[in-house]
Amino acid sequence: MCGIIGCVTKDRNIVPVLMEGLRRVEYRGYDSAGIAVVSDDGLAVRRVEGKIDGLAALLEQSPVTGPTGIGHTRWATHGEPSEVNAHPQTDASGRLAVVHNGIVENYRSLRRSLEEDGHVFSSETDTEVLAHLIGSHYEGNLEAAVRAALAKVRGAYGMAVIHADEPGVLVGARNGSPLVLGIGRGTYYVASDVAAIVRHTRDVVYLDDLEVVVATPEGFSATTLEDELVTKDVEKVTWNIDTIEKNGFPHFMLKEIFEQERTVWDAVRGRVIETAGDAFLGGLREHRRSLISSNRIIIIACGTSWHAGLIGEYMFEDLARISAEVEYASEFRYRNPVIGPGDVVIVMSQSGETIDTLAAMNEAQRRGAIVLGVVNVVGSTIARQSDGGVYTHAGLEIGVASTKAFTSQLMVLAAVALTIGRARSVSVTEGREIVRAMQAIPGQIGEILAGNEAIKEIASRYAKHSNFLYLGRGYNFPVALEGALKLKEISYIHAEGYPAAEMKHGPIALIDENMPVVVIAPQDAFYEKILSNMQEVKARGGRIIAVTSQGDDQVKKMADDVIEIPRTMPHLTPILSVVPLQLLAYHIAVERGCHVDQPRNLAKSVTVE
Ligand code: AGP
Predict the structure, then answer these.
(1) How far apart are CA 138 and CA 322, in angstroms?
(2) What are 113-165's pLDDT values in tens digits?
(3) Pocket flag, ligand 1, residue 187 (CB < 6 Å)
(4) Which residues, in sequence order, are bridge partners of residue 347?
(5) Residues 294, 440: contact at Cβ < 8 Å?
(6) Which atom of ligand 1 is nearest to the CA of 485?
(7) What's the predicted TM-score (pTM) here?
(8) Are 39 and 66 in contact (CB under 8 A)?
(9) Residue 320: which of 278, 264, 273 has the closest Cα?
(10) Relative to the CA of 301, which ligand 1 atom is closest?
(11) Rounded to whole angstroms, what are the CA distances from 512 to 349, 544, 557, 581?
(12) At what angle do helices 107-116 and 126-136 cross, to 10 degrees?
């Protein structure tokens, strides 16, 4: 949510670096963008409503240069997307500029008291208040001013600040919104995520909450908000630069869908062993005993990660015979949950920064539960603050609609369920069968991807519809939810997912020839039942797109369009059945001319409530 970059160097124009970095984090927010640069001529700011391309065009007409600068791509919280609300925001002197990700909760009272002191505001943003507040404390030392201002701020921030009077100084601070420092040769960067800077450096320092960093071309220092020096470890970014390129695909989303053939295995590579029929997850070792002996597992997440959690619930019950519950993080954090020592919580998050998930996790920890993270982004806040966990290793996911992170989460959950199951009820023979089925998944995804053109054709026939229903049962009920979410997010078509049997309790009233119904109907334990649900749809004139097992004739007779998937074990079926639904949503969105990678109103990582 909002992309930030800042950079300080010597004798070099930093604007191309800022612009390249902004393009890399545009997936975090894209309703307006801007940069500010400090040079010997003072502070120059350029901002536009809309995307980075617009900012690039403005810079062509009205160039700025300088060795120190900050940039921002915005996902609006306070104030509509507009040039005036875009970042950077400046202070009363016009010599200090701030980019900010997060929400200053007490900005109204801060603004009121600044107005009483004569400050005049031009935007509706909380960030402008932050800029004025820092400016009001400025007495020739930017770091000191930032520290003094932040002592008065309540809320979340990942921010970068520059001042025309200190041309070689870049100050960053974090509380609740991510900020990473990049270390180059004579050049230092701050960014909301590594993608913004990885082209220039792989040496990074992850800031923790309530820390301030000051960078100059000569070096950096990290301190607490109270000005105590902190020693930070320099970490190496390991992922490949290819991850931030489209590599010939028209969109990141399509590239990421196709990457699943590889990423599903990356999630469990070296972690599942066929001879042992078991999974070995280093990040859970310390808590293995608690997991095995726990009476229930609580899974907490949002959005697509929540859907993965729902599938995990079925897996834990089936394979491990442990009762599991899945909670929306946003609900959990404000309830009075019955949870405490002995309970095991698994938080699922692609970004590792989702604020609701983070807050729910902290709440569970506060109440004494063990919290394990299933997280994709290495070094993210949830990954660092959880008591243990497993990285999904899907690589950077840029498309706002999550695809490869979801299937990787499912592979990891299957591995966790397997290892608990082996300690409780699954025999070595069964374990080996499960591992073999997991090993087959990448190839099976490859088979589904080979049918991409056929799915594209189906998509073209349905792209004009305004409503869709998605139905599934058992393991495929959450897949129906996920399929519907994918379609909504990127094509803006209204879509709902239901457990197929629930249809007759209300949604069936919607069915007519204008309502395409996507039915996930593999040959599993629910097969006969879901055939009956399909009959009910047909009887009311509904059109069916079915996802079914290879070689199925019965579904073919009933459905208008059929997409076949290879056969696997029931708990692994969602990893396959979701892939055609991702492709269907993708092609429908492209057909409708939607901006697939940056759908309206959304942002990749939701770091505000
Ligand atoms: C998925 O396509 C969404 N864009 C969204 O629902 C996402 O899954 C949700 O915001 C949770 O994000 P996280 O996994 O990074 O915590």
Answers:
(1) 57
(2) 999 999 999 999 999 999 999 999 999 999 999 999 999 999 989 999 999 99
(3) no
(4) 300, 373
(5) no
(6) 2
(7) 0.83
(8) yes
(9) 278
(10) 16
(11) 37, 11, 19, 22
(12) 50
